[in-house]
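We modelled each protein-ligand pair independently. The example shown here corresponds to the G7W entry; the chain sequence is given first, followed by the ligand as SMILES.
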Amino acid sequence: VNTPQKGGKFTINDFEIGRPLGKGKFGSVYLARTKTGHFHVAIKVLFKSQLISGGVEHQLEREIEIQSHLNHPNIIKLYTYFWDAKKIYLVLEYAPGGEMYKQLTVSKRFSEPTAAKYMYEIADALSYCHRKNVIHRDIKPENLLIGSQGELKIGDFGWSVHAPSNKRQTMCGTMDYLPPEMVNGADHSDAVDLWAIGVLCYEFLVGKPPFEHEDQSKTYAAIKAARFTYPDSVKKGARDLIGRLLVVDPKARCTLEQVKEHYWIQGMMEAKIRAEKQQKIEKEA
Ligand SMILES: CC(C)n1nc(-c2ccc(NC(=O)/C=C/C(=O)c3ccc(F)c(C(F)(F)F)c3)cc2)c2c(N)ncnc21
């Protein structure tokens, strides 16, 4: 994002605000572009009043500082931020593909090659975050976006914390992605993200999360026992990977590197690359 007009800090006057993209956590998100260069960005507007309850502003500064140093092709980049009297503005990478969960709703469920590619991308992004000691803690389709090349982008880090943490997670939104250790209120580590991508892989392939039940107590019980069933559409390779992630003991879950090297992921991605090459040849023929 090119430098602001008057050197130093950006202000909202460096941007032309476009249509609202939707409501993120804590605030609204708008499409925008820089006045010089027409570079597209997403701007998230947070109300200070909503954030600064009991002097968390210094923690906020540190958190946002951390996010602005996260630089990975599958993580929405936080380019810069600035504030005025009442609001904080986050200037973010724009994801033209929109929200992952909308894509999932439209197509009911993803093919194995698509699900495997998304799993590889999110495992790569999370291992990058974990190396920087950042756990996302809120991996679910609602927080995932799609980039201009159809690639997965993790967004909305509003809840990321430094590992390990036992910060209470206020139960906003679905608890389908909560791991047993958080349901039991125990300390949690970056293994919560491993459990979450196990739930995500299941939801990508089936179209709904594995522990979904009409009443909460059944969901909690199923999560604590890691009790779920597969429809016939989920094949052996995917079952093997999901079965290595949806494990009650956080230490027994497979690592992100093992996810990336898993035979189902590797096999499906090769198949996807071969199919895309074949399509290219046919198109050019
Ligand atoms: C509505 C639609 C679906 N939408 N939403 C996005 C979008 C993508 C990423 C984000 N990222 C963040 O919010 C990052 C927040 C922080 O790093 C942070 C860190 C510490 C804090 F304390 C906090 C704080 F919130 F507590 F302040 C925040 C937000 C919106 C989006 C997009 N980029 N492109 C297209 N459409 C898009």
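The longest strand covers residues 15-23.
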